[in-house]
Amino acid sequence: MKNVWVIVILSSTLFSFDLPKSGIKKMDKTLAKLWPEQIISKHLVNISNLEKAKLSFKLDDKTIYKVSNSSTSDSYIYLSKGFGKMNEFDYMVVFNKDLSILKVKVLVYREDQGGEIGSNRWLKQFSGKKDPKEMKFGHDIQNISGATMSARSLTEDVKKVIKRMRELRQKGIV
Amino acid sequence: MGIKILNLGIGMLLAGVLSAQTNNIDTTNQPLNSAQNVLNNSSGKKFTIGGYGEIHYNQGFNDTSSTNGKLDVHRMVLFLGYKFNNRVDFVTEVEFEHVKEVYVEQAFMNYRINQAFNLKAGLMLIPMGIQNEYHEPTTFNGVERTSIDGNIVPSTWREIGIGFSGNLDNLSLKYQAYLVNGFLGYDGGGKFKGSNAFRSGRQKGAESTISSPNLSAKVDFYGINGLKIGLAGYVGNSQSTLYDGLMNNDTTGLAEQADSSVVGMAMVGIDLRYTYRAFEARAQVISTAVTNTKEYNTFTGKDLGASMLGYYGEVGYDIISLFKKEATERLVCFGRYEFWDTHASVTSETLKNASYNRSAITTGFSYHVAKGAVFKADYQLFKNDAEENASSSQFNMGVGVWF
Predict the structure, then answer these.
(1) Are A50 and B2 an interchain contact pair (Cβ–Cβ within 8 Å)?
(2) What is the value of pTM for the model shown?
(3) Do the Cβ atoms of B364 and B32 come closer than 8 Å?
(4) What is the per-residue pLDDT across B262-308, written as a single tens digit (0 to 9) for each?
(5) Taking the C-alpha atoms of B178, B179, B180 and B186 in order, what is their torsion angle to the nearest 10 degrees?
(6) Chain A touched by B273 (CB under 8 Å)
(7) Residues of A with CB below 8 A from B89's CB?
(8) How much is the ipTM here?
């Protein structure tokens, strides 16, 4: 019986979102800026394997956080990855309780080309968006010259994340 | 109970995966050739394989004679990137030009200290203007690259060097600053000339000669959505083989000859790119000042200008978006005016050549049939100051891919 529990721990370690320390630091800093001078608590949303099995997509551990603060209702963070020319990058989407986007932030960018997508001004385009249909790349979300691959990848991935959060809401998980 | 069974299932699966990984480690201790390495690592995304290519048809026209057309596999470039870890990448691009010429277009290591600070070293593109860095055929309109990015910015301009680059998110700025090798201006004979300035002096990292390193830097601002503005600078001296073996206390006049075989140069470029939905525009100004041209031209018998100026403006519109917002295909119709003068000024020993004061009007379309695949066609009308009432023209067609 002990062996079984050891393996379960391994499973949660191997299939979890592996965000480097610098990314975690950036995430916390972003939250502090979103709700200045407030006590913010951030904790992982625990989703059982049974619940995961009912989802139409594979959900890694350490992907979704619930954020509480003293002034507004709860928010959620979804951690995800995009891909530039030759390397993946980590980013987060902060959702309002109604699953509209409060903020998108690039947390770890790993290549020289395409780092322009970290621009806060460019990322503001996603704020308030709720429907993937309102996020056509090059139309609703403007491109950045010289960073097209990363910008397109991020846009497409944010759409995917919205759809996933909607499903999680439908199933009463968030 | 159900949960426990599920967990056990995952655990068994994992045990299998771990076991398989262990086996892999055993086998990868065997010597592997490059191809095996690529195959073994591609699934782990350590390797990235890509490329771009462009195949052109050019048909010139003039009033006095017939002109043969040209069909050319202008460029085929294979991109290979290898990720050593989350901080260290190696990027290469191997280029076949006109089928028979092979070059290494880029080969540099990037060490990411953090998002704002990357150390780069190797054969790198010089950041000047738009197309020298972003020249994949799906990223610009027109079958051929702009004439400024050939005759003033000698695209594809790359040299070996070392430097830093990074993005500052809060300021929406990208910076690049490199110490690089310069153009070779003399290797037994002068290499620079009036018609295309420094183009023949590119060393491309092939057993290149260095006598004095140059500085190249660029800052891009992208804080206004859809707009990107770049300011680039390049300063330094050209290289000369005459410094090799020159005695420090030379009194034979060889030092003077060596000094006459180099020029100093300062190039400044401003570029902007703007897109708003179906509309796109771009512009670029490049100005170059050259020193020591009198001595260089007298010594080598060349006609290098003392300054060069070039600029262009281009607008385009995706017509398909008028009818279908969700279309994946794009049909961009565009028009461009371009001016470049490689004899904007000359020193007294050189006669100003009016035929180097040139302009071109280009109109055409880029039909993007898929992300990374484009058909292009355009018509170009060329003029120069030496033939005020005459002009030549060229029709171009091409396919371009980038993957």
Answers:
(1) yes
(2) 0.85
(3) no
(4) 999 999 999 999 999 899 999 999 999 999 999 999 999 999 999 99
(5) 140
(6) yes
(7) 86-87, 111-112
(8) 0.81
